[in-house]
């Protein structure tokens, strides 16, 4: 499952990505907002995605959007099992999945066109988690830290 959410700054891009990803036959669940709310707060919507991914971090994925991508990324990484990444280009998208086993993609709506964001998202979703020993070892170290 791919969970999707945004604040007011990312709402328009979230709606675009939802429509395009569904057209590409991805299984997407929109966790809100369902309509534009000018004074909403990104933690309220980030929480919804991060909680879902945290429950099943090796299977479920999330996509978060705000103006800079920074706020949603910081908030998402507070949840156990979440490895959220702020991505600006296709190379970062691929590396974040293959090297860091990222399970939440944070996007900066103010700095990407809808088409750029879609290409990044598609590449991120298509890139499998890496199995190289060094990457798995590093992610395992992060997981151990979360257990403390």
Q: How would you describe what is shown here?
A:
The protein has a single domain (2-147), classed as Sugar-phosphate isomerase, RpiB/LacA/LacB (Ribose 5-phosphate Isomerase B, Chain: A, 3-Layer(aba) Sandwich), CATH 3.40.1400. The radius of gyration is 14 Å and the shape is globular. It has 148 residues and is an alpha/beta fold. It has helices at 11-23, 42-55, 70-76, 90-98, 114-126, 133-147, and strands spanning 2-6, 28-30, 61-66, 84-86, 104-108. The chain has six helices and five strands, in the order βαβαβαβαβαα. β4, α4 (90-98) and β5 (104-108) form a beta-alpha-beta unit.
Strand order in the sheet with the most strands: 2-1-3-5-4
The end-to-end distance, rounded to whole angstroms, is 28 Å
Named CATH topology: Ribose 5-phosphate Isomerase B, Chain: A
The biggest beta sheet reads: 5 strands, parallel
**Radius of gyration, in angstroms, nearest whole number:** 14 Å
The count of β-strands is 5
Structural domains: how many: 1
Q: How much is the average pLDDT?
A: 96
Q: List the uncertain runs.
A: none
Q: What would you say the CATH architecture is? A: 3-Layer(aba) Sandwich
- Report the top-level CATH class: Alpha Beta
Identify the overall geometry: globular
Helix count equals 6
The CATH superfamily label reads: Sugar-phosphate isomerase, RpiB/LacA/LacB
Proportion in helices: 40-55%
SS-derived structural category: alpha/beta
How much of the sequence lies in strands comes to 5-15%
Helix/strand order? EHEHEHEHEHH
């Amino acid at each position: 499952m791919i969970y999707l959410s945004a604040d007011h700054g990312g709402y328009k891009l979230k709606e675009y990505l939802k429509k395009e990803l569904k057209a590409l036959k991805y299984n997407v669940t929109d966790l809100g907002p369902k309509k534009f709310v000018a004074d909403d707060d990104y933690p309220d919507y980030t929480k919804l995605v991060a909680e879902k991914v945290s429950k099943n971090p090796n299977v479920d994925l999330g996509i978060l959007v705000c103006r800079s991508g920074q706020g949603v990324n910081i908030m998402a990484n507070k949840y156990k099992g979440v490895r959220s990444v702020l991505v600006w280009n296709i190379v970062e998208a691929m590396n974040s999945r293959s090297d860091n086993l990222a399970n939440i993609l944070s996007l900066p709506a103010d700095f990407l066109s809808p088409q750029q964001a879609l290409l990044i998202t598609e590449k991120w979703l298509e890139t499998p988690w890496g199995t190289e020993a060094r990457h798995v070892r590093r992610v395992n170290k992060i997981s151990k830290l979360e257990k403390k």
